[in-house]
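Predict the structure of Probable cytosol aminopeptidase.
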Amino acid sequence: MITINNKNLEYKLVAVSNNEKNKNICDKAGSVTFISESKTYFLVIKKDSMSYLRQLKLGLSDFIKQIKGNTNIDFKSIIELIKDIKEEIIFNVICDVILFETHNFVTYKKDVKNNQYIVNIDCSNEMQGLLEENILKNKYVNYARDLQDFPPNIGTSDFYGKKLLSDASKIEGLKVKVLKNKELKDLEMNLVLAVNQGSNHEANVVVMEYNNNPNGEKVALVGKGICFDTGGYDLKSTMFIEGMKFDMTGAAIVMSIAMALAEAKAKINFVAIGLFTDNKIGQKAVLPESIIRSKNGLTVEINNTDAEGRLVLADGITYAIREKNVDVIYDIATLTGATAMALGESASGVFTEFDEMWNKLSTASKYTTERFWRLPIFEEHKEQVQNDSVLADLTNSCNKGPGGSTAAAFLTFFAENKKFLHIDCSRVVRVGLKGQGYIVKTMFEMLKK
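Done. Here is the predicted structure for Probable cytosol aminopeptidase.
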């Protein structure tokens, strides 16, 4: 729990630049030392190869892991050592770390102790509104993390469909429905159904809609929700199949952004589409070299059944355009190994041909301190997507070239000249086998205005 100006707490945290006053303080940048005599945690922030904000994040994370009781954070001592960054951003980072680290995460262990301590930030009462927004924002960061963390035997497409329908229906003004196989067939969302063929669970396409800006543009948020990705008949090796329960992260993020915006009563019109299904093998699973007609009429040769994410996104984008009349499209997906190789756990890849969309996202990311890196979609990438199939309009997997860019290029054929931005977040959204809820904060900040 976070409060402001609750002074009568047992412990305190103070930021220092060195250990001159107490040699027992570890002098390493970003380190935290607890001195029992004064009941004080000393967080070292100093000039170092590590950025100030990273020192703050790592130090606060360590502090929460060793917290002994209700603690007051000396905000003034922190901002005095981080002078080139806005106080508002520093305050946000403190809230982010505390709310992230104290979240009661999904677990199936018998005995788990949850942190119930108060962490107070000693700062101006003018920060109260910002604190409330941070609590709301991080509520849905943690909601996304929980969606990510459910094990695949529990976190099926049916499970997510039911859970999201129940949870989102409680938010005023947010309309929600779930499209299953019969409705998807009627809507000619054949690419989604092709990916779903091998599953023993129906696809669940969760659609959340919110309208609170009369005469304003309508935004689409489209998320890949592959609850477990075996690769289909292009089966993944053991090395690459670990963590494939996280292949539904794009949909988890999109659903969480939508719920956060609606609960905040943001002045926005949006439709959020979470495309939940499995990609499995079996008697009915789609075969490599199959040709499927997409919702927008283009035929697609499935040259790689492990390139399934772009297939469900393609139909989701077309649904947003043709059924919901959107003006702007953002999709979020753990889409390619190529982007993961390029950026690792450091940033999400962004592909767009619209500079203004990139500029808005980049500006918001500087406020939230989440990282994004723009990558190209060249004409050659689009040509490859068209020319690498002899029998169909497009292929879902090109014979050569940068996989991240050709995947993004594939999706542009379904954007129908709408403003379109694709986020590929293959590795940044989890650390080991724990979800991070990444991107929720940045998209919330960008779209709430």
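The chain has a mean pLDDT of 96.
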